[in-house]
Design a protein that fits this description.
The complex is a heterodimer of chains A (285) and B (172). With 285 residues, chain A is of the alpha+beta class. Chain A has seven helices and twelve strands. Chain A folds into three domains: 43 residues, no CATH class; 49 residues, no CATH class; 157 residues, Thrombin, subunit H. In chain A, 28% of the residues are buried. Classes of the chains: A alpha+beta (285), B mainly alpha (172). Chains A and B meet through α1, α2, α3, α4 and β1 of A and α2, α4, α5, α6 and α7 of B.
Chain lengths: 285, 172
């Protein structure tokens, strides 16, 4: 009994302390170093933050270069899929185009009316747009985020909105000198205030870690107001981070499906270039 | 002379090949996600570290594993130090297994891998959730561990072939 315990202790000691096979460091030293880094990182120790920013600057660029072959294969498979679905897509797009042309006339009128009304109350929304390239786009099972090639050098700040075409896709959560990281709306940690139209109900959109989001924090009785029609989800502008009315996604047949899953308008796996935007409400009163 | 130089370069390249693949895998996060198969993901770095530190730690130093962990944290965007700690725990398990094993057995190694990845993924999930308040999908971690375990024999075959090639180059 004592002998087997001794063997166990010897094996453990040898595994952790022995610098075998020309290893420069013992396992125990490196494990302790990792723990120290984790602890210092958790209390936002400044030197660790600077080291992290330094590593980020080098690694994001390297990762972009090394990911080129995989990204090429990814693009090739998407192109192949598009070619296979060419005819079906054409029919669908043709139908959508007719519908959109009708809607555009209405929208043009609404935009003009909205601008006139804002002028009446002396309120304008100023936005600063920064165009950025997506450097690293890892569909990681852990965190849904993208790395962009613009950083504090280009006046990127924490919390700025990320827009793909006209659709909201995420917000900036980490800023380095020449690059930044944006958390996508699909991430589990993403929560933004939204407006469900046409019912006009305020809610919170939460990421699921999958390719869709879910509606949270709505009262049960509101479900009665959401009928069988499709629901469009826009940003509500609460919290002041994003301006109101940025399209986010769509809920198909709320009642019929009996689910509150939001299909995002933007395909997060195909982001190449995005806009980093900050909104400022200017009141001339 | 040229042939001799070429041979020396090839030998060095083969010697550092596992380290090179490790760094490429953490920078590129090899998991075949471009296939867009729902729920499919595996952790290539875990298999690579487990295999090489168990079978032949001479080719993969603990220092480079530590640095690879830091890089992995930066690439996937989690607080730095967590992956290094997890990778080094794999090394600790494999070092212990090497010390207690007289005759290596595939089934024992395979089951040890399952125990190790479940342990380190649990530690990673707990530290992200409890210390850093970062919400993660437990199911995705579980599925990732499952595929990593299932795919081990395939990588074992590839790495065995590679190891033979490296040894052949070394003795050449």
């Amino acid at each position: 009994m004592a002998s087997s315990r001794d063997d166990f202790v010897i094996a453990i000691r040898s595994a952790f302390l022995k610098k075998s096979y020309q290893q420069k460091f013992s396992l125990l030293t490196l494990i302790f170093s990792s723990i120290i880094i984790i602890v210092l990182g958790s209390i936002n120790f400044k030197p660790i933050q600077y080291v992290k920013i330094g590593i980020n600057e080098v690694i994001y660029r390297s990762s972009f270069i090394i990911s080129i072959p995989e990204n090429y294969i990814k693009k090739l498979s998407l192109q192949l899929k598009d070619h296979l679905n060419l005819y079906d897509n054409y029919i669908k797009i043709e139908t959508d185009l007719i519908e959109l042309k009708k809607k555009k006339l209405n929208n043009d009128f609404l935009i003009l009316e909205n601008n006139r009304l804002r002028e009446l109350i002396n309120e304008t929304i100023q936005s600063k747009d920064i165009y950025a390239k997506v450097l690293v786009d890892k569909d990681s099972p852990y965190l849904k985020s993208i790395v962009l090639n613009k950083g504090s050098k280009n006046n990127v700040k924490l919390g700025m909105a990320i827009i793909d075409d006209v659709y909201l896709v995420g917000k900036i959560i980490e800023v380095n000198y020449t690059n930044s990281r944006a958390l996508l709306l699909s991430d589990l940690n993403s929560k933004i205030p939204v407006l469900l139209e046409p019912a006009g109900i305020h809610a919170v959109l939460s990421g699921t870690g999958k390719n869709y989001g879910v509606i949270e924090f709505t009262k049960e009785e509101y479900n009665q107001e959401l009928n069988d029609t499709d629901i469009i989800v826009y940003t509500s502008g609460y919290g002041g981070l994003f301006k109101s009315g940025l399209p986010v996604g769509k809920i198909n047949n709320y009642k019929k499906e009996n689910k509150n899953e939001i299909n995002f308008f933007s395909d997060f796996r195909q982001l190449d270039y995005v806009k980093i935007v900050s909104y400022e409400m200017e009141s001339n009163n | 002379m040229s042939s001799l130089n070429k041979n020396t370069f090839l030998k060095s390249l083969m010697f550092y090949f596992p380290t090179l693949i490790l760094f490429l895998s953490v920078l590129n996060e090899i998991d075949l996600n471009f296939l867009a198969i729902e729920y499919f993901s595996f952790n290539f770095a875990h298999v690579l570290i487990f295999y090489w530190t168990l079978k032949n730690p001479y080719y993969l130093s603990y220092g480079s594993i530590f640095i690879a962990g830091l890089i992995n944290d930066v690439v996937i965007g989690i607080p730095i130090g967590i992956s290094s700690f997890c990778y080094l725990l794999i090394c600790a398990v494999t070092a212990y297994l090497r010390n207690i094993t007289l005759t290596p057995n595939f089934i024992n190694d395979w089951l040890s891998l399952l125990f190790t990845i479940l342990l380190i993924n649990s530690i990673q999930v707990m530290s992200l959730d409890l210390i850093f308040s970062i919400e993660v999908s437990y199911m995705k971690y579980f599925i990732n561990s499952g595929f990593t375990f299932i795919l081990y024999p395939l990588f074992l075959f590839i790495f065995n072939t590679l190891e033979k090639r490296i040894k052949f180059q070394k003795n050449d």
